[in-house]
Amino acid sequence: MPKNRDAARANLENLYRIFTVPEAPDSTLGAIDKAITDDVTGFLQNHIVAIERNLEEIEAMFSSAAIPEEPTYVSEYTEFVKENLVAHSVHTAAPGFVGHMTSALPYFMLPLSRLMTALNQNLVKVETSKAFTPMERQVLAMLHHLVYRRDDGFYRQWIHNSQHALGAFCSGGTIANVTALWVARNRLFAPDGAFRGIAQEGLAAALKHRGADGIAVLVSERGHYSFGKAADLLGLGRDNLIKVKTDANNRVDLKLLRDECQRLQDRNILPLALIGIAGTTETGNIDPLEKLADFAQELGCHFHVDAAWGGPTLFSDRYRPLLSGIERADSITIDAHKQLYVPMGAGMVVFRDPTALSAIEHHANYILRHGSKDLGSHTLEGSRPGKAMLVHAGFSIIGRKGYELLIDMGIERARTFADMIRHHPDFELTSDPELNILTYRYCPLAVQQSLAEATVEQVVEINALLDQVCQLLQKYQREAGKTFVSRTRLRIDHYDGELTVLRVVLANPLTTEEILQSVLEEQCEIVQQPEIQSLLRQIEELCVGQGCDGTTAQQQRKCCSAGRT
Amino acid sequence: MPKNRDAARANLENLYRIFTVPEAPDSTLGAIDKAITDDVTGFLQNHIVAIERNLEEIEAMFSSAAIPEEPTYVSEYTEFVKENLVAHSVHTAAPGFVGHMTSALPYFMLPLSRLMTALNQNLVKVETSKAFTPMERQVLAMLHHLVYRRDDGFYRQWIHNSQHALGAFCSGGTIANVTALWVARNRLFAPDGAFRGIAQEGLAAALKHRGADGIAVLVSERGHYSFGKAADLLGLGRDNLIKVKTDANNRVDLKLLRDECQRLQDRNILPLALIGIAGTTETGNIDPLEKLADFAQELGCHFHVDAAWGGPTLFSDRYRPLLSGIERADSITIDAHKQLYVPMGAGMVVFRDPTALSAIEHHANYILRHGSKDLGSHTLEGSRPGKAMLVHAGFSIIGRKGYELLIDMGIERARTFADMIRHHPDFELTSDPELNILTYRYCPLAVQQSLAEATVEQVVEINALLDQVCQLLQKYQREAGKTFVSRTRLRIDHYDGELTVLRVVLANPLTTEEILQSVLEEQCEIVQQPEIQSLLRQIEELCVGQGCDGTTAQQQRKCCSAGRT
Asked: What does the record list as GO biological process (chains A, B) (predicted)?
């Protein structure tokens, strides 16, 4: 069957072709390459957040579970991707996308990312990374220096030390936080006499060795959800992640923290780590790090700072003092894909003690041999891409001063937006921005006044309805796709309960005051929708009811006119 | 100071500029973009493995721990990257780079990766990914289907189910393996009456609840080193990762496995999981999966298959039967950055039971809310890039048949290379390729014969010297940078001990027979170096010594002439 043989040969040639690099830009692959680049450019120049289309319709395009039998032309697939994937992505770089921590990227990240992908280095070992290993070690040292500011001699000794690593480059902040607590756990139960350490003998034997009934991690209730995963994964149990209540400014309440530690001691549970947050995910607040450092020292436990979001504030001469005490942390998480403006998938953890990562050191026969400079012997992950290169590029091209400008501008923008909200008759600021994150809700001034005078039961009822308003408002705005804010649930002290609030993260340097104004304007339009109007009418009735219990008719009118058409 | 104000404004404008997309290809950024692309093309068309330069010299270029104060021009930085990073990377795509699992990429992966980076989606939640979430769910379903082949109704029910996920897309196989064992652990200690489950109460309480003294994972001594990390991380302790010896074909010895389980039972340790390997990292062998499935069923424990390497063998009609029994696994790891030819940083784990991942389910207030389709509620990692798109592209463009061809060619190439080694007078094959991985060592035929007749002590002495030869050989070859093989330590039954061997992975479709021939030729040249010649002379003397104890003079000459100049 020579025909079949010809077909097989043609298949094989096609296969070789896709693995080779196009010599000329006018080759088919070269042309497709250019078309994709142009399409990306088009996408990025488009400043809407998303095209209005519901998820179920999109799912229909991605619903076959069978891997296609036959190959497809790259050009055909590219068309599919443009129509079905790109068109229905979220424009995380749009200046009106202010709801999450994913922002615009500096454009230079794109060609450099492509370079990184093409080199396809694997940072687990020098044999598949060569220069990328020293480069990543330098990035970790730079981050270490940003936080701990040790002298040149220190870095000369440790930066390229084959026995150690100053930190670990991770796929994200979650792995960074897990790594920090893993190190803390293994150091708490280090080898000791006949006990060969928790890494070898396990948690049950470790507790027995210390005569303890458990270990606990303490963090404020604003702590990132990754700590819950870490507590589960590391065998502590979520019960032993103690979530301490915060003060009115979303910072851990030190008095309550002390009480919790006492309770742990009474139950024979060892404190494994105190966690300070430098930029809470939901409100951007910073825990009192100096005082936490003092207390961790008193307890003799690990002090970890989750600065995944707020870490780059250290670049700012003006705002660096907000993080005072961070240099006393045993470990720090910073996400590069957040305020270092690196593409998704880049987190880092650094340790004050350059030998700390020895607690999780591991080796293998074919790589990570003793004495090698392979970074993989000190990471939770195995094979990893050369993403550190993009952090290196950011540090070099933007520079300390460039990052400072970005941080300062973000904080100022948040203050400006907070002022807009404060002065707007229909919105209530629910958390003041300390960094560049704030929360607020739709709550007309008159309702706010009414709430101030209402009974506890009335407050609960009105807030429950306002929660529904907020939830729908956020949903409709997201679906319309012009601008985007996120939402969360937050305990607000003066209402003595949890509220649904809108959350805004202001890290995109292209977000202008006009755009922020338009976010509020759009929300005022959205509340005119019948479903929300019906909720507002119910609130009005409750306010009137409350008015009957003592407020004047004038107060009643004032209370209920706002926010209604 | 108007001058300073002007400077500040200029800084700000520059900052905005780097965040905006160049409108025209002849803009500065457009030109740099093109220059980087051209440089990548040049790099990829270059078929050497690495430039000869020692690591210490490279480290000098990456030794400052201070983040630069001032910004740098993108063009300037690009030059730095080209000269210091790109030039000293490892050409993992070179057809002569046959030592590790990183191979060439299909060219279409580059523009698509760039697209993925530019979109900067975050797969943790729908709000930052939209179409990417259904797309990733489809990829997981496709992989599930590849292994488990459930019917259409099954996938209709589960693929886009908001309560569940068929698997987890990870940064790599390590996180995939950890996720599998985490799920297994949490299912073994599921909530039960007053016991609220290990996720909540922790490992110590869980053991107490079951009246057990520990939990163990069993895998062959060829198991990937990530299982050691998992045992440490999950609180089992490395002692409870039981590494069972293999047979002469590097497959787990079932008799010894049974003995180990008995020993665990005697010590009141529960078997948490049996692990089967489908493509061992060092030798590419496949455990007897059917028999392991039977045994796991008998024990009532989780059966995980680490198919990080060998999983894509399922694409091949011819070789799929080698993995028979894999469809009975509770969970399976497959790395996309290995034999799916996706860039670094893409692993996956799928579960037979579509509800299995509920064991590690978690929620937060601002994302991952109950009922949302956010994939992040079932992953160990948090924020993740849209890498699943590249798996989707591979499945679509290469197709099942294309991958089949790649798999079949790789296995045949390994057999060809094994034959070359078998017929070469200076090399000894130390593991026969079952898939596309093999090991061998430099050991002239006469030395092989001599070893066959030697006493145990002589064998040990000669092998120790051959180990040194192998180690130097691999080192010099890597440093020369023309071709590359890796090395490992392997227990070889008929020598009753561990040997240093060279390891070859044949996944690059551009690796020809001529290139494989040149790998051996280069090694024959390298052994001429004085340091290695000195070792070979010592081996000769030992052989002569042995000859004195009974072999003829002729045998002596034959024994010691090979491999000497």
From this structure: carboxylic acid metabolic process
Q: Do B172 and A90 touch (CB under 8 A)?
A: no
Q: What are the distances in angstroms from CA B145 to CA A64, A66, B172, B375, B386? A: 10, 7, 20, 19, 21
- Among all residues of chain A, which has the CA nearest to that of B390? A81
Was domain B173-336 assigned CATH 3.40.640.10? yes
For chain B, give the mean pLDDT: 92
pLDDT at B470 > cutoff 60:
yes
Average the pLDDT over A250-262 and give the result: 98
B103 pLDDT exceeds 90? no
Give the whole-number percent of chain A exceeding pLDDT 70.
Answer: 95
Sign of CA dihedral A49, A113, A390, B509: positive
Nearest CA in chain B to A138: B62
> What pLDDT was estimated at residue A13?
77
Q: How many residues does chain B have?
A: 565
pLDDT at A293 exceeding the cut of 50: yes
Q: Do domains B173-336 and B424-561 have the same CATH topology?
A: no
Phi-psi region of A92 (alpha: psi -120 to 50; beta: other; left: phi over 0): alpha
| Partners of residue A412 in chain B, C-beta under 8 Å | none
Using DSSP's 3-state secondary structure scheme, residue B435 falls into: coil
Distance from CA of B88 to the nearest CA of A (A): 5
Residue B56 tokens read as 């210490």
* Residue the block writes with tokens 């809700």: A441
User: A224, B223 in Cβ contact below 8 A?
Assistant: no
Q: Give me chain A's average pLDDT, please.
A: 92
Question: Best of A86, A120, A515 to disrupt the B interface by mutation (most B CBs within 10 Å)?
Answer: A120
Q: What does residue A169 show for φ and ψ, rounded to 5 degrees?
A: -90, 130
Q: Render pLDDT for A388-436 as a digit per residue (tens, 0 to 9).
A: 999 999 999 999 999 999 999 999 999 999 999 999 999 999 999 999 9
CB contact under 8 A, B202 and A11: no
Nearest to A360 among B88, B135, B232 (CB): B232
Nearest-by-CA chain B residue for A507: B19
Q: Residue B18 and residue A121: Cβ atoms within 8 Å?
A: no
Judge contact between B26 and B17, C-beta under 8 A: no
Residue that wins the pLDDT comparison between B46 and B307: B307
- Taking an 8 Å cut-off on Cβ atoms, the answer to whether A362 and B229 are in contact is yes
Q: Which of A266, A316, A323 is nearest to A292 (CA)?
A: A323
Sheet holding A427-431, edge to edge: A427-431, A437-442, A497-505, A486-492
> pTM value?
0.95
Q: Does the distance separating the beta carbons of A478 and B127 come in below 8 Å?
A: yes
Pick from B146, B156, B204: which is nearest to A203 by CB? B204
What class has domain A416-561?
A: alpha beta
Find the closest chain B residue to A380 by CA distance. B229
Q: Let me know if domain B424-561 sits in CATH 3.90.1150.10.
A: yes
CB contact under 8 A, B11 and A214: no
Domain boundaries, chain A: 2-89, 129-191+203-401, 416-561
Contact between A99 and B127 using a beta-carbon 8 Å cutoff: yes
Q: Between chains, do A345 and B171 touch, taking CB under 8 Å as contact? A: yes
Give me the interface pTM, i.e. the ipTM: 0.94
Q: State whether B61 and A134 contact (CB < 8 Å).
A: yes
Residue B543 φ/ψ, nearest 5 degrees:
-65, -40
- How far is B86 from chain A, CA to nearest CA, in Å? 8
Q: Which helix (H) or strand (E) holds A440?
A: strand A437-442
Q: Chain B: give the shortest CA distance to residue A65, in Å.
A: 4
Angle between the B28-45 and A109-119 helix axes, to the nearest 10 degrees? Answer: 0
Note whether A62 contacts B130, CB cutoff 8 Å: no
Question: What is the fold, at CATH topology level, of the domain defined by A129-191+203-401?
Answer: Aspartate Aminotransferase; domain 2 (3.40.640)
Convert the pLDDT of each residue in A525-549 to its tens digit. 999 999 999 999 999 999 887 654 4
